[in-house]
Design a protein that fits this description.
Largest sheet: 7 strands, mixed
CATH architecture of the largest domain: 2-Layer Sandwich
Mean pLDDT: 93
CATH topology of the largest domain: Fructose-1,6-Bisphosphatase, Chain A, domain 1
Number of strands: 14
Number of domains: 2
Number of helices: 9
Oligomer: single chain
Structural class: alpha+beta
Strand content: 15-25%
Radius of gyration: 19 Å
Amino acid sequence: MSYEREKQVAIEAAIAAAKLCELVRLDIPPAMEKSDKSPVTVADYGSQAVICKALWEAFPDDPVVGEEDAKALRDPAEAENLTKVTEYVKKIVPEVTPEKVTGWIDRGNGEVSQRFWTLDPIDGTKGFLRQDQYAIAIALIENGEVKVGVVGCPALPLESGEVGALFAAVRGEGATMMPIAGGTPRSLQVVPANDGPNLRFVESVESSHGNQVRQNAVAKAVGITADSVRVDSQAKYGIVASGQAALYMRLPSPKSPDYREKIWDHAAGAIVVEEAGGRVTDMHGKPLNFAQSAKMTDNQGVIASNGVIHDTVLTALRESS
C-alpha cells in the first residue's frame, strides 16, 4: 500500500504549523499552564488546530491522538487567550472562528485504534519558549506499526547555513530531510560506528527528562568519549538519523523511575531513525509499543542508535543496573 498522500498531507500540515509557531516566536506571549504545570503557549493550540484541520479534511475517518485539548480555552476566563490563538490561526487559515479553532483542536482527542494519527503540536515547549529547539511531530500508526512520520524542526541549523529542517519517512521507503522553507529532499543515513567525529550522543536539555549521570556512564562504556549534545524535542531523532550523532538515550529519571513515555513524543522520530538505517527500542531492547494507549505502558526509557552499537548499549545498561 502506498502512503504517499498521507506523507504529503503530513508534510504540508507540519510546514503550515511551523509557520504559525515561528510567527508566535516573534512575540511570545506569556505561557499558560496545563494541569500538570508544564508550559503551553498559544502556539501549541494553534499548531494542533492547523494540523488537525488538515488531517480531518484529508482523512475524515482517522482518529488523531494529540497532546492538547481545548477545554481550558473554552473557559470564559481564557477568552483573551482564545482570541490570540484564533488570530494566529487566521494567518494560516483565513476563514476561521474561535468555535472552529476549538473544534479543530479537539479533533486531537481521538483514541488509539487500528489506524490513527498521533500528534505533538510542539514537542519541546520549554525550548520553544527560550528560542531554542522544538519540533512538530506527526505520525500515522496502522495495525500497531508506524507507517509515516514527519518531524518539523524550524530552529535546527543545516549544513547549508539555512535554519529549519523537515524530516520525513515512510515504512520501507527510507527517510529524507529537506529545508523546512522548501527544497529538494535528500536521503538520510545514520552514522557508521567507526565515524569518530560523529560518534557522540544526544540527550534532553532538561535533567528531569532522563538520567544524565547514567546516560553519560553508558555512553563512555560503549566508547563515546565526547560530551553529550543536549537538545530539546524530537530534533534528537533527526540528529541521529542524519548521521550527526550515533546515539540518543532517554532513561527514566531517578525521581520518577516508573514514568512511561507518551506515544506522540517518539512515534514520528522513531520511524525516521529506523528508515535511515538505525534502531529504536526501549532500554530493555523491546520494540516501542505505540498501539496500546497514549502512554507506552509496556516500555521503559528509549534508546535510538545507528544500529551497530545498539546491542552494546543494551548490554552496558544491563550491567549498570
